[in-house]
Amino acid sequence: MSNPYTVLGVSPNATDDEIKEAYRKLAKKYHPDINPDKELAEAKMKEINYAYDTIKKMREQGTSYQDQNSYNSSYTYNTYTNSNIDFQTIERYIHTRQYFIARMMLEQIPKTTSKWYYYSSIINYNLGDIDTAEYHIDIACNMEPNNMTYKQIKEKMASSYYQRRRNVYKRPFTFGRLIFSLIKFYIIINVIGFLLTMFFSCITKVVPTP
Description:
By secondary structure, the chain is an all-alpha fold. The protein has helices at 4-8, 16-29, 38-61, 68-74, 87-95, 99-106, 114-126, 130-143, 148-169, 175-206. It is elongated and about 95 Å long. The N and C termini lie far apart (90 Å). Mean pLDDT is 77; it is low at 67-83.
């Protein structure tokens, strides 16, 4: 799981005021009311709140971030702890589109099952990391070749990939594009005409007049 100080972008030696200021800046930056992607902003805000609450709790208890386990043991968001995080918990966060929280919880579970890679692919896909999503769903399918759910997800990701590729080249018609196309066509015609003129001019010089 991510270091809470890293999430807020501060040093573990930062003062309480510096941590509070960093939190306020991030909260302002990712406030759902000023972000076009409201759902993603809400998920990011949960991660920021998570980190800020964790740091406050550690400092109140007089503990410090030493390793991954110390951060996990201090996590109390939504009353879940490292001991009772399971795939059902992660699935609930996915259904409510809280993908940042789902990913942080998933990272506490060992990467030993196809289900881990299945959920990771869904989470990363919705967070915009398409490469990781496709890579992990491939692993899940290889671990369980007969799992139809995994196959369907893989097919959907593949089809959406080609759709994104088509959308890149499929641009809406505009008057500006029409003018640009006409200008380009005019230049091409003039260049061809110039080359033909030069070609026939050279032939006239080479072939003697009878």
